[in-house]
Amino acid sequence: MYKAKAYSVTSATSPFASTTIARRDPIEHDVQIEILFCGICHSDLHQARNEWSGVMPTVYPCVPGHEIVGRVTKVGSAVTRFKPGDLAAVGCLVDSDGTCPECKAGFEQFCPNQTLTYNFPDKHTGGVTYGGYSDSIVVTERFVLRVPSNLDLAGTAPLLCAGITTYSPMRHWGVTKGKKVGVVGLGGLGHMGVKFAHAFGAHTVVFTTSPRKKDDALRLGADEVVLSRNADEMAKQAGSFDFILDAVAAEHDINAYISLLRRDGNITVVGAPEKPLPLSVFGLIMGRRSLSGSPIGGLPETQEMLDFCGKHNITADVEVIPIQKVNEAYERLLKQDVKYRFSIDMASLKSE
Ligand code: NAP
Ligand code: ZN
């Protein structure tokens, strides 16, 4: 074991503060990574504040962060794909059994024995896993991804969660040229959804509650922007969408979007609000529409997404902050005051 620097919260209401955590020394299949950038996902905020207490109660101290990009510092004797000095990335998963049908199919996100990057039992330390708000991490090679060399690293970190969480359902539901696609909520996930829908050639419509985001939505690749609190604008879109991605982090009326789908259209929810969303089933019945959810993505698809981003030069729009500004960043995230993802420059942790 060795000590790593990190920022943690010690309760649902306490601010982040500097700390040290125990990390395992890299064993046979492990890759040790010096973390260069870590994105701030709204899930980090939900978890740090124990907003998902019914599903995934938070164990304190909690070190969030699952949008990790860094440089390899050490590898175990059995590691073949990485060597010290290589760029590397880690997302929301750090382990799975590797033997179940889901893992064999490359769907580690559905493995019943998966290990999440933070706030999850850690079989190596006996405690819980600690995420990327830290200066280093040790991860088994199978869960370490390659970073295309042409991409800006601060903007690459958010691809590991916001990127794959929007890329995967769009691929699954066949978002391509000729399809009309909606993205609800122009936040960290939503803005990546717009970039991907546009890159896949779909007619892309952003639904936002924030009029001031209109110009950005168009710049990010939207063909149209709808102010979702304007009933007339919403009514004009009725029954016209093949696919809608709902990336909203708070309570909202999902039925209003279901009615915008065509026959057999699908709305996939990726946003994970604290409270249940009321559903009117008539919207689904009339039109044989479907509602589904989607969690992150498996390892092969995450690598595919990173390579796609490398080829198309896609990264997140980020505001880079030092770790010392993480508390302020959380408050700004809640006020939707970030364009469109915070990315923490981990060099700032050296001074702690
Ligand atoms: P974010 O950056 O805070 O963006 C959320 C967006 O939702 C906001 O920018 C805003 O967009 C909209 N919004 C916020 N409050 C709203 C309200 N009261 N009514 C309507 N719209 C509202 O969050 P994020 O990091 O993108 O994460 C979004 C959600 O996805 C979170 O719940 C997160 O936990 C979840 N998530 C799920 C997965 C998964 O695997 N399924 C992975 C990562 C994150 P506008 O200003 O445009 O309206
Ligand atoms: Zn996330």
Characterize the structure shown.
The protein is of the alpha/beta class and 352 residues long. It has two domains: 2-161 and 297-307 and 316-351, Alpha-Beta Complex (Quinone Oxidoreductase, Chain A, domain 1), CATH 3.90.180; 162-293, Rossmann fold (3-Layer(aba) Sandwich). Helices cover 23% and strands 26% of the residues. The protein is built from eleven helices and 16 strands. It has helices at 42-48, 101-104, 153-156, 162-172, 188-199, 214-220, 231-235, 255-258, 282-285, 299-312, 326-334; strands at residues 2-8, 17-23, 30-40, 68-75, 87-90, 93-95, 115-116, 136-140, 180-184, 203-208, 224-227, 241-246, 261-269, 290-293, 318-322, 341-345. The strands form four sheets. Strands 3, 4, 5, 8, 15 and 16 form a six-stranded mixed sheet that branches. It has a six-stranded parallel sheet with strand order 11-10-9-12-13-14, with helices on one face. Strand 9 (180-184), helix 5 (188-199) and strand 10 form a beta-alpha-beta unit. Helix 4 crosses helix 5 (188-199) and helix 4 (162-172) crosses helix 10 (299-312). The radius of gyration is 20 Å and the shape is globular. The two termini are 20 Å apart. The relative contact order is 0.16. Bound molecules: NADP nicotinamide-adenine-dinucleotide phosphate and zinc ion. Zinc ion binds next to loops.
